Amino acid sequence: MKIGIDRINFFTSNQYVDMVELAQARDVDPNKYLIGIGQSKMAVIPATQDVVTLGANAADSLIDDENRDKIDFVIFATESGIDNSKSAGAYISGLLGLSHVRAIEVKQACYGATAAIQLAKGHVALNPVSQVLVIGADIARYGLHTSGEPTQGGGAVAMLITKNPGILELDEESGFITEDTMDFWRPLNHNEALVDGKTSQNVYLDFFNKTWTEYKDKTKLTLSDFKAMLFHLPYTKLGTKGLKEVLLEANEDEKVELTREFEAAKRYNNQVGNLYTGSLYLSFISLLEHSKDLEIGDRVGLYSYGSGAVGEFFSGKLASEFEDRLPQINLESRVQVSVGEYEEIYRSQLKNDGADIELDYKNDHSKFVLTGSKNMQRQYLIQ
Ligand code: HMG
């Protein structure tokens, strides 16, 4: 039985900061951000959006009267969770009107959404009529004026995992690895991630080589079997480095083709920044949207990496509806904010001090918004 991604959608805020302006404000050569890191714009997430609303805004259009009753499992992957006990899956199920479901949250840094897909695949294999809603939603936050700052961003990708999927049929095998590593972490008393940037880059690339090698050993496939190679993209330059490693195995034609497809696959990420769990899947959407010559049956490779650290290389084949089910994404209509406004928005995030607060949400026209906190309970609104 074929199992995979039947529908997919992406959501981010309608605000961004321009990386040239951020570089100038930080007294850095803009080319460091534009070329060295490979980012042009960075999504700025307002206080009125948290992972629950980002996820709900991404998932809403995937649910209709036909599939509502078939969805029996909601797996919410995030490392920007809002509660130490109640899952974001429970919150979002309420907002989306899904009640006959099992709803949970999973966490392993940026790997969470891939873990969720693997769980969903197993669930559908045992329950072929089931549909699983997988959501990867995060807000990537480092400190202001830190080296991690230009690699922030945020947003959510929602996917329906089903049998006979319309978009991507997952292959059976994958290569995977876990090693207890302190490359990036967020202690319980921190709102911002702590990171050893250089170590994180090294582990990312090391795990790519290891998981790709294991995948090839298991499947006997080679690079020639792939139309495109996709990477978790904390910033697009790191994916470029991953691709460079694998291109050592390519002939000249393959180098040209795989590079061209990667250019298509990084375009949205270049405009949004890191969305942690969703980044790899935003890159997949970007490939579908921008590649000129994909065909049904083309195989794509996906490298998922989550600090701490877990890596997995897996693959899938484009399915019969992939062209007709492209999500509607319009990053051009976002509003640019100045660096001063971005810093103000950064500082305005909901505090964990338990105080009642009403947020000003009049400028947030998203369907699902966070309006504040009352009696230590987040207040959500469907507008
Ligand atoms: P940094 O120290 O500010 O930057 O940190 P740098 O000095 O290494 O420079 C970056 C690149 O810009 C270098 O290129 C420079 O040469 C180049 P490279 O050597 O890497 O090829 N450069 C220039 N290029 C053109 N013109 C110039 C110029 N100046 C310099 N004028 C770092 C950069 C990414 C480490 C930092 O931003 C950081 O720590 N970010 C957060 C951590 C991160 O994203 N790590 C990625 C791997 S871990 C991961 O993917 C998991 C993650 O998503 C979290 C999760 O799993 O949950 C992060």
TrEMBL record:
EC numbers, comma separated: 2.3.3.10
Domain (Hydroxymethylglutaryl-coenzyme A synthase C-terminal): residue spans on this chain: 178-251, 265-324
InterPro entries per record: HMG_CoA_synt_C_dom (IPR013746), HMG_CoA_synth_N (IPR013528), HMG_CoA_synthase_prok (IPR011554), Thiolase-like (IPR016039)
GO molecular function: hydroxymethylglutaryl-CoA synthase activity
A Pfam family matched in the record: HMG_CoA_synt_N
Domain of life: Bacteria
Gene3D superfamilies per UniProt: 3.40.47.10
SUPFAM superfamilies in alphabetical order: Thiolase-like (SSF53901)
Coiled-coil portions: none
Domain Hydroxymethylglutaryl-coenzyme A synthase N-terminal: 2-163
Alphabetic keyword roster: Acyltransferase, Transferase
PANTHER family listed in its UniProt record: 3-HYDROXY-3-METHYLGLUTARYL COENZYME A SYNTHASE (PTHR43323), HYDROXYMETHYLGLUTARYL-COA SYNTHASE (PTHR43323:SF2)
Family per similarity comment: Belongs to the thiolase-like superfamily. HMG-CoA synthase family.
Name recorded for this polypeptide: Hydroxymethylglutaryl-CoA synthase
